[in-house]
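#structure-requests
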Amino acid sequence: MTHDAKRCASLESLQAGLAALDRAQTPAHGLHRLVQLGLDQLPLPGSGATLQRWQALCLVAQHDLSLAKLFEGHTDALAVMAEAGPTATPVPGATWGMWAAESPDGRTVVEPVGADGLRVNGAKCWCSGAGHVSHGLLTAWYADGSGPVLVRLPMDQPGVAVSAAGWQAVGMAASASIDVAFDDAMGERVGGEGAYLERPGFWQGGGGIAACWQGGAMALAGALLRAVSSAPATPSPFRLAALGHVGTALQSSAALLRETARWIDDHPTQDASARALSVRLAVESSARLVLDEVGRALGATPFCRDAAFAQMAADLPVYLRQSHAERDFAALGEKLASPGASPWAL
């Protein structure tokens, strides 16, 4: 058994842990509970069990997309620090935010202090869970413009202030992707300059987000499946047709997720950018079809009378916008047009 197989929570244990969560509690509380139970210990990307990692993310997403957002960020931070090597020692019981968005309004700036210490100033946007996690792992830049460099820091220090003033979300509201301001906060460098973007795990981790989208779409599709399966009479042919559309889309995106995970495990040090872009765009397309078909088939009732369905239907379109839409299609097209590419071989 590999080291990663030993350290991983089973999908059955994760499912039981999710079922035991109190839905009246916040997703932040759910993340803390999953960490307490050791259910955040997923296989590392490219370790031979990437599919199991994505299945875990998909499972959390089926339960709650805001929780999945926090859980994916936390487990991504753990993977990034593991990839950085022994210098990034674990912090037992910590909950992590992984924040790499860059704002056009300014950057987070760091100044070296000692061997690996960094003094942090400036601001960071789109920091999911920042008001509740114990630690943050974020991209920052040196004053001369070089970087990015990864810095990790505890959130409970005087130089860290969070603000939800700009967070007006309805969908994904509970993920609380708020702003953080740093004023001489103290952190620790993780890895070398530019390592965050250059490491194989950067694009390998991108598929994990697609697994979350797949989970959200599966949860909505489940409502249509239950409606068709429990119909007292012969199901409406229109609902059956919608279920056929939904099933075809989800089976296709699931197959590509499995294929991509297998490719990553077979090529753990290679550039996975084209694979990750393909699977993300395919899952986004599948999820958008599910949103449309399920809504058309079931009408307004579940949106108005099923709290879990309504929340998932509000959350999923917002989460999908973590995709960069046409920019990602253009980036993928550029890779597919490169000499020697054979993207559609069977």
